[in-house]
């Protein structure tokens, strides 16, 4: 079975993530919020580093409930700074809280984050890759989304991070052409 070239098939949990989750279209706001937190935590690190800590993030960030995360206090930030199950980066933790508050604003404005984000792709996944293409790190879409979210006040969500977010949540189908998961 051919899979994406970047996948380390010696890691069963990574293979499972690739085969069952990465690139599958998401419509659930809670899952979108989870990926916003995880992708922003990844900045400067490997995705596998974050994937291994996913359960720790789930516990630390209230099962990815943006309404709860939006209320985290400075005392909670200090508690999270001591939590070895997550990346203990104050700026990333504070960004997650800030972004939770803004995520709720988008839900209020658009009815759901899902409606907001799928509007960027006319409600259908975009196929990016063709045979032999080098994978992208950013696109005009991720550039625009980064600009729009920055204007709204989001943090730690630049174009590269948002491109990975769009890939992971299936708004962009970026599986290799010959990958079994492409279709």
Topology:
Layout lengths: L11 H9 L8 H14 L4 H6 L1 H7 L5 H4 L4 H8 L8 H21 L2 H6 L7 E2 L12 H13 L6 H10 L3 E2 L10
Parallel strand pairs: 1-2
Helix pairs in contact: 2-7, 2-10, 9-10
Commentary on this structure:
Zn(2+) binds at residues 4, 18, 175, 179. With 183 residues, the chain is an all-alpha fold. Helix content is 54%, strand content 2%. It has a two-stranded parallel ribbon. The protein is globular and about 50 Å long.
User: How much of the polypeptide forms β-strand, as a percent range?
Assistant: under 5%
Q: What profile does the largest beta sheet have?
A: 2 strands, parallel
Uncertain segments are none
Strand order of the largest sheet: 1-2
Assembly classification: single chain
Overall pLDDT: 95
Distance between the termini: 14 Å
**In which range does the helix fraction lie?**
40-55%
Number of strands: 2
State the order of secondary-structure elements, H for helix, E for strand: HHHHHHHHEHHE
According to CATH, what is the class? Answer: Mainly Alpha
Backbone structural class: mainly alpha
| Overall geometric form | globular
Pfam families: Adenine_glyco (PF03352)
Binding site for Zn(2+): 4, 18, 175, 179
Protein name: Putative DNA-3-methyladenine glycosylase I
Keywords: Metal-binding, Zinc
